[in-house]
């Protein structure tokens, strides 16, 4: 290969990198807006990064390391112009649930950081491999009702878990119920530190009020500045209020996490759960902001960008990250035009660590708890839960089951419960799909559900049956049993016409059952007839050899053609049929 060809190929590879394309297409008039938006964004990134690090059971400084690296990594490989990544309130409890059981009883911070960094690298590997394999559809494994329940459970878990820090005491419990019991016990014992409670509760009230009344004001920054001022003026540290202290100076070196071999399996299990939640967040946020900015959503490229961001964080003592709808919204409102906004934010945090590492030494720990608790409130969706109760009770129960999975089993088992319930719900719908008998309604074209139109007319001796699902191993027997029941209803039909447009597939198990069904019907002088069967499904039926038993003449292109053939053969006319073909409710 010549030097020219190698150069051309290298240039093509570079042009494929989103960050390189963004630089090539950057407009000069965007610069001022991106810099201003980066400054505004930093005011949110710093306190949230520190707060979410503590939520994950890690030192606050790791939240800043993570924020810096993930912003830079996504700026290079992320396709969205303004999507902002960083430590996330929904991932914090999952990281803690994965890492904390693996560290020693004394809670070695260095080991916790190493485990969290390896977890981030594993999440990166999962996301990058999923991107290469084009597995963006995995985000659809969690339905909205189960995600609502999961997030409600997560919000409650975060709230209860942060109460001790907010109120100035510690508890020793492993799960939500245990934590609730311990919090109540500590409250009864009078363990609350009044100064801590005053700072924390005031912080929550201030953030909520400012976000409601003055949404353009950086509520978190205002609260943090006032909390630092109060801690300095009133010497809150001497009154039992925990303070962050001086952060380590400088930037972390490139570090390969040192973990034990037997830690890898539980870390990988946690990485899978975190990757699913991060992917769902990323796709939903990317879709929302792409629709508003006119960009096209590229799910697989988004996964690659988030994977690279996690890899960068993991190699510099960080932990797993996801996209943030709230921080992206702040950047958008501040006028962000490109990923330069995130780069500016990352550089400002670096300057802070290098030049003024003691800037947050008097930041009260209850103030960080207030940041986390207000974030948890945004995770909960009580109106959505009420709407599910009103609209569809089955999905409401799925939501409650997902909530209970998080509350009773824990955060990581909770995501497994949420995914499992979503998959089971899909399977349930395919296993017991909606089915009905159709009839003719005066004044309406076509053929309609007799449940909706009880007075619909039918052809004597014929039942028109619709089964709203593909036929496969799990539901084929349900289909067979219903057809046999209708065939034995008095007066006996001679034709059962399957309005087969919803039947998008027939697998081999269903084909065998169809063959047995047709033979059983033929022995009772009942004919199984298919109308509007899709061509690919018809070809499968022929390949399975079903036309040995099902008469090829009993396949019709339309329901109308099947009914016309029946009427020519029998001379039947439309009439009210009081009992034949009536379908039972399941």
Task: Sum this structure up briefly.
The protein has 22 helices and 8 strands. α21 links the parallel β7 (527-531) and β8.
Task: Characterize the structure shown.
A 6-stranded mixed beta sheet has the order 4-3-5-6-7-8. It has a two-stranded antiparallel ribbon with strand order 1-2. Helices cover 60% and strands 5% of the residues. The mean pLDDT is 86. The longest helix is centred in the middle third of the chain and has 30 residues. It contains 22 helices and 8 strands. With 586 residues, the protein is mainly alpha-helical. Helix 6 crosses helix 11.
Query: What general form does the structure show?
Result: elongated
- Series of secondary-structure elements, N-terminal to C-terminal: HHHHEHHHHHHHHEHHHHHHEEEHEHEHEH
**Which segments are poorly predicted (pLDDT under 50) over 5 or more consecutive residues?**
none
Total domain count: 2
Terminal Cα separation, in Å?
Answer: 69 Å
Helical content stands at 55-70%
- Let me know the largest β-sheet: 6 strands, mixed
Spatially, the strands of the biggest sheet line up as 4-3-5-6-7-8
**Helix count?**
22
Mean pLDDT: 86
Number of β-strand runs? 8
Share of residues in strands: under 5%
Main structural class = mainly alpha
The radius of gyration over CA amounts to 31 Å
